[in-house]
Design brief:
Blueprint lengths: L15 H27 L5 H15 L10 H6 L7 H6 L8 H22 L5 H7 L3 H9 L3 H13 L4 H14 L5 H8 L3 H21 L8 H12 L6 H5 L6 H24 L3 H15 L11 H8 L5 H4 L15 H18 L23
């Protein structure tokens, strides 16, 4: 008791339930990806894409051959065919100096590091957002495969963060588009936001990064590449998580499903153009991410890690929207013919978008600074 008989104010301690939930989040964010990777290793699926697609392609280009020479119908059927432009094979060339297991482990570590790097680049400092991101099924799938999806998501974050630095946008944007051609809506975003010179330079850089690596191997595999991509898109596209595959559940014609996908993607590009014209740069970039996903002919579940960037554009602190992608759990990581999986994933993504864009106020003037932690779509 203090002098005068007044008792000192009692400070409330931390809520035990809140503390337990925080600790469990940190623990599960480590245990879940680790267990999934252990399971994959026991099934001989560890770093699957690196060991069975990228390393063989890298060995081929190092010796001047076609990175597609090892692609067979079995490789396409089992999902380990190398389908990227040759630039990607060159990027993995240093890993050919290591034993395959060591190369796979190194690639896995680097890919996993792209998750916190992406969020930090976008200004997300709340550790709970980082922890939950490692619990998303698309994130775990991307780490398990150790492919280029998460590094390219980091590239998207860098393009946004340094959008006012032409050299960074040209280099990173060109590298992204040259590695996966369906990232081309980035060029539409640059034009829509009146970055005409940067758009032209990025397009030129993309073309150079496609042509020059191919020229270095005498354009080996170039003639058959379009047929390979067309074959894979026709064979696996209808069983992926793409919009066309979803539409194909309701329309019998695959051509009609592709038309629906094209219409949706075009509408998103028009939204990019409108947002860019109104000076809402952030909105335009968000619609660009959605357009990339919409136009992807073979959308695998790890491509949905692009939602990391979309959510971080508007919510840098922990909120319900960071939990929404957890709804994807239960869907198959691999492409499959089950329509229920496609509907399941679509509903989960739609719920994420609704939460992220729930306070969209297109009329908000740019002069108003965004409130920290609020769901706002002003740029």
């Amino acid at each position: 008791m203090s002098i005068g008989g007044s008792s000192a104010p009692r400070t409330a301690g931390p809520d035990p339930l809140h503390k337990a939930l925080k600790h469990s989040l940190a623990v599960w964010a480590v245990i879940t990806p680790a267990w999934m990777m252990i399971r994959n290793a026991l099934d001989h699926q560890f770093a699957f894409d690196v060991r069975y697609a990228f390393l063989p392609a890298a060995h081929a280009v190092v010796h001047g051959g076609s990175p597609y020479s090892g692609v067979s119908s079995r490789a396409v059927q089992e999902g380990f065919a190398f389908l990227y432009p040759p630039l990607t094979a060159y990027l993995f060339a240093p890993l050919t100096l290591m034993p395959p297991l060591v190369a796979g482990m190194l690639a896995t570590v680097l890919v996993a590091a792209c998750v916190p790097a992406t969020l930090l680049v976008l200004g997300v400092r709340d550790w709970r957002c980082h922890a939950v991101a490692f619990l998303w099924l698309p994130t775990i799938a991307g780490i398990e495969c150790a492919n280029l999806t998460l590094p390219m998501v980091l590239g998207l974050a860098l393009v946004w963060r340094y959008r006012r630095r032409a050299a960074v946008v040209v280099l990173v944007g060109g590298l992204i588009i040259a590695s996966k051609l369906f990232f081309w809506p980035l060029l539409v975003w640059l034009v829509a936001t009146r970055r005409y010179r940067v758009a032209a330079l990025t397009a030129a850089a993309s073309a150079a990064l496609v042509v020059l690596p191919w020229a270095a191997i005498g354009f080996a595999g170039l003639r058959g590449y379009p047929q390979l991509m067309s074959f894979v898109a026709q064979r696996e596209g209808a069983e992926s998580y793409s919009l066309a595959a979803l539409a194909h559940l309701f329309v019998p014609s695959w051509s009609a499903a592709l038309a629906i996908e094209t219409v949706v993607g075009t509408c998103l590009l028009l939204a990019v153009a409108r947002a860019g014209r109104l000076g809402r740069d952030r909105d335009a970039f968000a619609f660009t991410i959605l357009a990339i996903l919409a136009f992807t002919p073979l959308l695998e579940i790890h491509y949905l890690t692009a939602l990391l960037v979309l959510i971080a554009l508007y919510q840098r602190r922990f909120a319900a929207v960071w939990l929404a992608p957890l709804l994807i759990w239960g869907a198959s990581e691999a492409n499959n013919g089950l329509g229920l999986n496609r509907v399941h994933v679509f509903v989960a993504v739609l719920a994420t978008l609704v939460l992220a864009l729930s306070d969209w106020r297109p009329g908000v003037a740019q002069r108003k600074a965004p409130v920290a932690g609020a769901f706002r779509l002003s740029s």
